[in-house]
Design goal:
Blueprint (H helix, E strand, L loop, with lengths): L14 H4 L21 H10 L3 H25 L11 H24 L3 H7 L5 E2 L5 H4 L7 H14 L16 H7 L3 E2 L5
Parallel strand pairs: 1-2
């Protein structure tokens, strides 16, 4: 015979039946374990909020992660106890001195031999005739190396004299930007 316990008119079970499991769920308690601590905190929260076991696991994981993040943020905000430990100024000054010592011969050799950029500054406006310039003269122009100088000479030999400086864009690899960079240094003299 199964006894049916009905709730009271206000919907609450009588106190003697609230926390007692049915007969088929009753377990034996380990020795020394009081009956009110069987469920533990997690199980009590599960019952109170109605969460499943997996939901409680997810909530505990998220809570632990959040707490760890707060702890890390707090640790990062604490001042460093030993500031001399991170002082690299002596190593930096040593590195700078060695770098100056190693780079000084390279600077001296660069000052002795003129580079392409220095020769561009030595060119005068209109100083190179596009129809008579040699390969060495053409390589003094900004952005014109040996290959472009050879292409200009080859074009001049096959197509004839340049009639205008704008015709330089017909040479393979020379575009409008290069033309505008070299235009101030070029001229075309009339053939005599």
């Amino acid at each position: 015979p199964t006894e049916i316990i009905l709730p009271t008119p206000n919907g609450v079970l009588p106190p003697e039946t609230r926390n007692t499991p049915p007969d088929h769920i009753k377990r034996e308690l380990p020795a020394g374990c009081p009956p009110e601590n069987i469920m533990g905190i997690g199980s009590s929260l599960q019952q109170f909020f109605g969460f499943t076991r997996r939901e409680m696991g997810a909530i505990l994981f998220l809570s632990a992660t959040f707490s760890a993040g707060l702890l890390l943020r707090w640790l990062e905000s604490q001042p460093v106890s030993d500031p001399a430990r991170f002082d690299y100024s002596t190593e930096d000054s040593t590195f700078a001195a060695l770098s100056r010592k190693l780079l000084s011969p390279a600077r001296e050799s660069a000052e002795r031999s003129p580079s392409t950029n220095n020769t561009v500054q030595q060119l005068l406006p209109g100083s190179i005739d596009l129809n008579t310039a040699t390969k060495n003269e053409l390589t003094q122009l900004p952005g014109i190396g040996d290959a472009y100088a050879e292409r200009i000479i080859t074009y001049r030999e096959t197509a004839g004299r340049f009639r205008s400086i704008d015709e330089l864009v017909k040479v393979k690899g020379i575009g409008r930007k290069t033309l505008e960079r070299v235009r101030p240094f070029l001229t075309i003299h009339e053939q005599k």
